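User: I'm new to structure prediction. If I give you an amino acid sequence, what do you actually give back? Let's try with this one:
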Amino acid sequence: MMHYAAYGLAGLLAAAIIFLGTQYVARPWLMTASFGLPRPANDAVTASWLRLKGVRDIGSGLAVFALMIWASPAVVGLILIVLASVPLGDMSVILAANGSKASAFGIHGVTAVVMLLVGVPLALGAV
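Assistant: Good question. You get back a string of structure tokens that encode the predicted 3D arrangement of the chain. For your 127 residues, that looks like this:
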């Protein structure tokens, strides 16, 4: 039964990552408000860079879903552990740039912790 709960949480994480990615593609300026860094220049080039972040988020979420369908729970857990490096990296960049500590820890840090809390038990076969 715990396996289904962990898989459900993995699916929610994947869906959330895809949702956020689509928002970066569709509305990059709106998404930058809560990221934790000062807002970038409002021009077409910057919007393209922000959309690249969205495309990568969508790809990451789809990778989790694909592994949920075609791989073992241990592999799903492993990819969640690996992908936790993304919000940890975001948190580190924000803190190094003296950005919003609330966003760094409250959004990116919490996301990484949740990914690890779901991924580690799956990877170890503990659920």
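You can read the tokens as a compact description of the fold. Here is one thing that stands out. The mean pLDDT is 94.
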